[in-house]
Amino acid sequence: MDLPYTESQEALGIVVTGGSRGLGYALAREFLLKGDRVIISGRNPEHLEHAVESLKAEIPGCEIYGVCMDVGNPEELDLFTSFIITRLGQVDRWINNAGTSGLRKAPLWQLEASDILETCTTNLAGSMLMSKIATEIMRNQPSEDIPLYHIFNMGFSAPGAKFSRSNIPHKASKLGVAAVSHFLCRELHEQGIRGIGIHELSPGLVKTDLLLRDTSPETKEFLDLIAESPEKVARKLVSKIREANGRKSHIRYRSIAGMGLHALMQLTLKKVGSPLRERILDLSSRKRGDEPL
């Protein structure tokens, strides 16, 4: 159930896994622009260092920290937890963004066993392990009978998995992530823990390496037409993440119906001349109050 939102004006403590590139980086940037204090994680030390330095250069005085770690490695949990508590003190929002679609979009029997295992470990085990430590941290923070702290996972709904072009390990693990959100929310309720909300976050089609990996030129052209930039998606999602309340919700950049309408409109406008296309998009944006289709 999607709930009404009231955006917090206070600086929040934010954790974004997989935050060195793509949507994770764009989310971290938007949080920093709101004045929040942010920790990002990533597996590649060079990408992580570049991300932190770029954000510091763009947003002088921002409080951004980077941790090189693998969300699927249980041996790194204690160090990651200690770093978060030391740097942020309090975590208000935790976004489990780290994920992979695997190296190839191919039938299961054509995939390497190591690639299958890495996809499932990063997506499913990673989200589960990160939700575990996020819950542990938040349980030890000042609490009330309403959720003050919120965890966000990026799983697949059944329709989302049905329409995904990704391989079986990716779809299966993402369905599992949604199950983690559902059952963790139930466990918290059964244990009488009222101060933590568990939410699903659906960014839709975002122009990232994960989406475009191992695709044909024709598919890339199609995705480039209908997918959105990480920056555009992050601007809308961050406001909703900061505003989140309640025990659970499903926060979407765009509904499934909206995605279909957007794709249809973009494909239709592609057949129209560029000046007219820009004019139609401008009028459409005005009618929506600058909301994307």
UniProtKB/TrEMBL annotation:
<protein>
    <submittedName>
        <fullName>Short-chain dehydrogenase</fullName>
    </submittedName>
</protein>
<dbReference type="InterPro" id="IPR002347">
    <property type="entry name" value="SDR_fam"/>
</dbReference>
<dbReference type="InterPro" id="IPR036291">
    <property type="entry name" value="NAD(P)-bd_dom_sf"/>
</dbReference>
<dbReference type="Pfam" id="PF00106">
    <property type="entry name" value="adh_short"/>
</dbReference>
<dbReference type="GO" id="GO:0015996">
    <property type="term" value="P:chlorophyll catabolic process"/>
</dbReference>
<dbReference type="GO" id="GO:0010304">
    <property type="term" value="P:PSII associated light-harvesting complex II catabolic process"/>
</dbReference>
<dbReference type="GO" id="GO:0034256">
    <property type="term" value="F:chlorophyll(ide) b reductase activity"/>
</dbReference>
<dbReference type="InterPro" id="IPR052625">
    <property type="entry name" value="Chl_b_Red"/>
</dbReference>
